[in-house]
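A quick aside before the break. I want you to see a complete sequence-to-structure record at least once, exactly as it would be stored in a machine-readable document. Don't worry about memorizing anything.
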Amino acid sequence: ETAVMKNIVLEAKIYDRDGSVAAEGNMPVTVRGGVTDTYKLRLFVKNPKLWDAENPNLYTYEVSLCEDGAVLDTESGTFGIRKMQLDPVNGLRINGRTVKLRGGCIHHDNGIIGTKEFAFAAEERVKTLKNAGFNAIRSSHYPMSRKLLDACDKYGMYVMDEYADVW
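That is the input. The structure line, written in tokens, reads:
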């Protein structure tokens, strides 16, 4: 927010489902006031627990900006690690296994609840679809909410997130 250049440290940690550190690292960066820059810090998770619809293994990341030992800002979230392949012989493969997508298209609203998204409603929606045999959903007309995407990650649902109508 100021024109002053600052030397800070970017710190990142990745935690597995049990809360153990799976990877960590840090790097010095120079921040220039009024300028948006991109930095890359490579972290490697050894022997990752892979994410798929049957095993939705999620990791948590925490990234902090620090100056003189004080934390200026922190961001955290979750993600899964997987290997995707698509070819005309084997079709879609996730983590080396052929996957048949079983699902359907859903709208952005929650029926009687309306268009407001609640985490519990998103989770119940995904769990209900999983119990009905779905492993994939496609959004219709609008991008999915962050809460619905998080529920899909948590419960193992493949997603085709449509930005806008294409017809």
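Two observations worth writing down. The longest strand covers residues 21-31. Helices lie at 119-131, 146-155. We'll return to this after the break.
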